[in-house]
Amino acid sequence: MRPTIRDLGEIELLNRLKKFMRYGQIDDDIAEINSSNKSLLINTDLLVEKIHFSDEISNAKDIGWKCITTNISDLICSGSENIISFNVGLVLPPNTHWEWVENLYEGMMEAMEEFGGEIIGGDCSCGKEKMISITAIGEKNSLRLHRGNALPGDYIVSTGYHGLSRLGLALLTSEKLPSEAQISPQLIKRAINAHKRPYPAVNALQALKQCKPESTNWRAAGTDSSDGLIESIRGICQSSNCQAVLSKNSVLKYPDWPEDSCWDEWILNGGEDYELILSLPKEWAEAICKTLKSAQIIGFIKEGKPNIFWDNLERINIQESSLFRHF
Amino acid sequence: MRPTIRDLGEIELLNRLKKFMRYGQIDDDIAEINSSNKSLLINTDLLVEKIHFSDEISNAKDIGWKCITTNISDLICSGSENIISFNVGLVLPPNTHWEWVENLYEGMMEAMEEFGGEIIGGDCSCGKEKMISITAIGEKNSLRLHRGNALPGDYIVSTGYHGLSRLGLALLTSEKLPSEAQISPQLIKRAINAHKRPYPAVNALQALKQCKPESTNWRAAGTDSSDGLIESIRGICQSSNCQAVLSKNSVLKYPDWPEDSCWDEWILNGGEDYELILSLPKEWAEAICKTLKSAQIIGFIKEGKPNIFWDNLERINIQESSLFRHF
Prior knowledge:
CATH 3.30.1330.10, five-stranded mixed sheet, 22% strand, 11 strands, Phosphoribosyl-aminoimidazole Synthetase, Chain A, domain 2
């Protein structure tokens, strides 16, 4: 029996790779380096053509923006808003136009102008398909968000809307929508923008830091919802060894979002929305909802084997929720 | 006119990418991050199947060893022997066997056991061809080797033999050899090992540090010969804006290396040998040749537009020497 990567699936593959690593990105969004009295957070992301991006859906500038911002989102959801640097590895087929490469980097520069950081190095090679590998480095701050920091009694907070990016993807690819519901021009614009130009939750992180009540310490669990809302909560439950109970009515829908329940799937498992999903002590959770208009308490954490339930005790099928398997 | 990457060639492509970066790996082997009172050196390398490695030539363990050691070589030739960490990005076709992945990581672990460092994170995706992206981080030491540190009057030192890895590749692929010269079993073994299991010049770096005469300061230029001996000297001349004069008789040949001059090309431009190529003040150059048996003064640096000459004034064609163009 020599299993292939397809036999294993991505989760089992990552699980098997754990034994080769001290800790870091496999259990969390980020790896960490202690460099005397300053600590650094490090994140590597790969983007492969046709899997993570496609010229039919986005232009090179948008792709450049997205490579950098998705990396920044991992730093932000780990507590770091001080972005230091990026190393960019680029695999390109020989018939790639320079114009495409230039636009890609210009998109990256736009993102760095917005969020900080600079490209300090990288590598380049030809290959059959385009591939972008980004290693981002940020400075660790007073608040270190870990997936594994949740405790029973915590409230689960989402800092914004979900499903927009998934709708944007469907609109860009002319995919059949869940139902024939009317979609407002404003929602169309917002959804396409969410997909092409994701905006990491730096404001939410700042609000989170500012609103912390003096009565609580800096312990908070967090991740981003890049792999979907449910998947991000699953990650917190898994790393913190606890259960989540979610309130369906509390999960925010974008104002114009279609009412039909068949559209809910994209809110729960659409992915690529880059909001912060936090597990916080009650007072801190309430404080951030006061400070940040878009933040919402969507459930709570309790003891038990890693699992997610709706508040009507219905179990959420985590296996089905993991849409972001690339094998 | 929309030039493709093939139209531009790798050097022009890297040149065009410079405007998007502060400094770092494009002009040198490495990028640098200041993290309060400790500085870090960072290097990203991409390895693409069929271009940088192939299952027909090397097994997965050897490939794993090579990915890590080629990265370490960039840290070492920048002065760092304190290897901190690696982030590994892996693109794999779905039909890749887990066994291959496990062996790859085991080869990486062997290299880390030998030279230090640990894998702290990474990413994984499927794709059409295998690709390995490694970002290595090391600690900056008292000696910071830059390509751009050479000064007229310096001696050029090579810390070991060249051509072995290229011969190893030819033997592994049953490529026609430059001539029908006899090759000893020992040379065959050494050449194949040089290609499959390159050994970064950590001993040479340590010797370099230990033997520095008190009369000179820590200024030294250096790079590794991963892209070939001549290409490494070209890099130093380019970054230091100076000329190199090489003595053909001084370039060391491995004891059993065939005498025929048609074999010289592999010594000069074979690549993947990972020796240190240094530009040092005379006293320091002489000191390292006394300390390190395999080190040899092979030429000197003089003023002038970047170029390389033999000591009979024959100019070395740099364009032809750059065999490591992957586009």
